[in-house]
Structures are given as C-alpha cells and as structure tokens.
Specification:
Blueprint (H helix, E strand, L loop, with lengths): L9 E4 L5 H12 L3 E6 L3 H13 L3 E6 L5 H15 L4 E6 L14 H22 L3 E10 L12 H21 L4 E7 L10 H9 L9 H14 L7 E4 L12
Parallel strand pairs: 1-2, 1-4, 2-3, 4-5, 5-6, 6-7
Helix pairs in contact: 1-2, 1-7, 3-4, 4-5
Bound molecules: NADP nicotinamide-adenine-dinucleotide phosphate.
C-alpha cells in the first residue's frame, strides 16, 4: 500500500476504451478504484472495459464526451463528480488525444486547431472542471510525450500540443498546491499506431537504449507511482521512454 490509496475512491481516465487509457483504467481498478471510463466514439470498447472491471468484482461506469465540446465535458463533469460521491475523486488521468501526421508542406490551420483543442485545451478544460472535486492529495495526471522535447518531423501541432501539456502541468502544480498535485508522464513509443510499418517500429527499437518498445503497463506503473506511491511530487514529468530522450537526436 502506498502513501495515498485510490481504493474506494473514483479515478477518471479519459480515452479509456482502448490502448494506453484502457491500461491505466484496468491498473487503477486492480488497486480498488472505482473507474469512470471516458470515451468519445468507442462505446463498445468502453463497455468491454467496464464489464472486465465489474467481472473482477470492481466498480466502473462509462461516460461519453467529445472533449472538444465544452458543454459535453461540463455535463460529463457533473455526472462523474456526482457518481464519485461519497468517497470522492482520487485522480483524473487525461490520456485522450489525437496523433497523426501533419506534414509541414500541407499543414492547415484546421490541423493546428484540432490538435491543440484536443490535446491541450481539453486538458485545461478537464483541470478547471475536475480539480475542485479532487480529494486532498489527489492527482491530476497528464500524458505528455518525449517528442515534445525532440519534435518528430511532420508532427508539428502534435509536438507543440504536448510541449503545452508539459507547461500546463507545471503551471497547474503551482495553482493547485498544496491540496492537489499535478504531474505528467511522458512516454516514448509504447503502442505505435496500427498503421505503423514494421520497419518504422524496428528503427524506433534500434534508437532506444533499452532495446525495446515499452508496454502500456510500463506507463501505467509510472502513473500509479505518481498517484499512489509518492505524495511529494508535483509539477514533474516522468519520462518513460527506454532512454530515447537522452540518446536520440530526433527528427522522427
Ligand atoms: N501510444 C504511444 O506509444 C504513445 C507515446 C507517447 C505518448 N502517448 C500519449 O499517451 C496517451 C494515450 O495514447 P494512445 O496511443 O492510447 O492514444 P490514442 O489511441 O491515440 O487515443 C486515445 C483515445 O483518445 C480519444 N479521443 C481522441 N479525440 C477525442 C476527443 N475529441 N474527445 C474525446 N476523446 C477523444 C479517443 O477515444 P474514442 O476512441 O472513444 O473516440 C481515443 O481512443 C496520449 O495522450 C498520447 O499522446 C502515447
């Protein structure tokens, strides 16, 4: 048992129907948290996550919102906060995001707006709506990316949005202290997009000092550490990238 326990309290994970968000949700459920499983379009997958948690004796419910639509997020906030009573909200993990190639030559203002709204503005929106409901010593966790510091070529708005997330997390740590902590986990490649070619994955592996692609569980353990195991970290960014940041010159 860590210093702060999520058992019996609610954890909201955004983008929890699949991939990394799903891993965060299952990990916190295994620690006894009640899971608010957020999704936008992956309703079926979100229900599967809920069933998996409930099937193991846990507590979970799916909540839908398009995070780019303020009214939808406000409605979800009301629903999640009331569902989290009486034990309260232990943590919010803002994992939902967009990631796709936007080559410089064809980059449009629409690409920029979509990425910044989804990956940065929505995280700010979640912090504003949920921070007042977090229990003392609760956590607002953001998910950054090592590529905020070594931008991938062809992913300008994504990399800028994640640099913004790192800055937002530091600023939130200052604003929300001493009651609430705000920390980021910044993964390297863990789950490449389904469209990633095998040679791209091999190149990433070759550029990673630890010689492998990380697993969702590696990242989930880092999130859990910041929420439950330490209560003296705020405003930090825990890089979980197999050593890529310290050795790879970047460029994609
Ligand atoms: N995968 C990696 O290797 C990796 C590496 C570094 C950093 N990260 C970061 O880790 C986090 C999770 O990564 P991931 O690969 O699991 O993410 P992902 O599969 O790209 O996206 C997760 C979910 O975000 C949701 N989402 C997208 N736009 C949304 C919107 N407007 N409103 C609400 N939800 C929206 C989608 O939910 P629905 O399907 O329900 O629509 C999607 O399933 C992200 O912040 C990502 O940037 C991932």
């Amino acid at each position: 048992m860590g210093r702060f326990s999520v058992a019996g309290k609610t954890v909201l994970v955004t983008g929890a129907a699949k991939r990394l968000g799903r891993a965060f949700a299952l990990d916190f459920a295994s620690r006894g948290a009640h899971l608010a499983v957020h999704y936008r379009s992956s309703r079926k997958e979100a229900e599967i996550v809920v069933h998996e948690i409930v099937g193991k004796g846990g507590v979970a419910k799916a909540f839908r919102a398009d995070l780019r639509v303020r009214e939808e997020v406000e409605k979800m906030a009301e629903e999640v906060i009331s569902w989290s009573a009486p034990r309260g909200l232990a943590a919010v993990v803002a994992s939902a995001s967009r990631f796709h190639k936007t080559p410089w030559e064809t980059l449009s203002e629409q690409d920029w707006e979509e990425m910044i709204e989804t990956n940065l503005t929505a995280v700010f929106r979640l912090a504003r709506l949920f921070a007042p409901a977090l229990v003392t010593n609760g956590s607002f966790i953001t998910i950054g990316d090592w590529a905020a510091e070594r931008p991938y070529r062809g992913f300008l708005p994504y990399c800028v949005s994640k640099a913004g997330v790192a800055a937002l997390t530091k600023a939130l740590a200052v604003e929300l202290a001493p009651g609430i902590r705000a920390n980021a986990v910044c993964p390297g490649t863990v789950l490449p997009p389904d469209s990633a070619k095998p040679e791209v994955i091999e190149r990433i592996r070759g550029r990673t000092p630890l010689g492998r692609i990380g697993s969702p569980e590696d990242v989930a353990a880092a999130v859990r550490f910041l929420v439950e195991e330490t209560d003296f970290a705020t405003g930090t960014c825990l890089v979980i990238d197999g050593g890529r940041l310290v050795s790879d010159p970047g460029y994609g």
